[in-house]
Amino acid sequence: MAGWNQDPDFTGPYGLPLTVPFEDDAEVDAPSFSELVRRHSGDMAPRAMLDELLRTGLAVIDDDGLIRNTGRTYIPSKLDPAAVERLGRVIARIADTLDFNNQVTESRDGRYERHVETDLGLTEEQYERFNIYLRQKCQQLLETLDNWLAMQEGRIGGERPARLLKKKLVTGVGIYHFLDQKLPFEDDNPRKKD
Question: Are residues 103 and 139 in the same domain?
Fold first, then answer.
């Protein structure tokens, strides 16, 4: 999804993801979905990737048979092995940041970790409005940070280095929303409401 939203070969005016055919066409000077997958998804098969994006609603096939990007954030299903792996990675990263920050002597030497929460609480209606506001603002922030990281790595706005000359650090930012109790209007799968 990052490649489709950031690679200049797969974005058009205003940085919008291009609508692409599935296969390469030697007669047409345009990128294909298969090329996108080869370039940005390692050894994943293009058909398997398309099936997953269609299943999760991140892509659709239009009436002309072209594939259109419909979102930017991939969230695997609950029991999907990728979901279990993601859960472990998120918990490990939060725990590592908290542990690291507990060991530094000066707060300025720690990793960024902050949170905000209500003092008096919100009504359910206020909570629903906050949930919508949070999704909009956090998505904007994460996309801004993702674009900045992509420029630093050379994924957009420049040439990707031919080889790595220095040790590279994997870093990023995660944002989570907590609620101390489940609300009556929340079902077992809140992602279906998105």
Answer: no
* Backbone torsion region of residue 115, taken as left when φ is above 0, otherwise alpha when ψ lies between -120 and 50, otherwise beta: beta
pLDDT in tens, 151-181: 888 777 766 555 556 677 888 898 888 888 7
Which ranges of the chain would DSSP assign to H, the alpha helix? 2-6, 33-40, 46-56, 81-103, 124-153
102 and 124 fall within a common domain:
no
The total of structural domains in the chain comes to 3
C-alpha–C-alpha distance, residues 100 and 171, integer Å: 14
| Report field, pTM of the whole predicted structure over 0.85 | no
Rounded to an integer, the average pLDDT of 55-84 is 81
> Where in the sequence is the domain holding 61, given as residue range(s)?
2-69
- Rounded CA-CA distance 52/59 in Å is 9
Q: Are 91 and 98 in contact (CB under 8 A)?
A: no
Instruction: Give the tens place of pLDDT for each residue, 119-153.
Output: 999 998 999 999 999 999 999 999 899 888 888 88
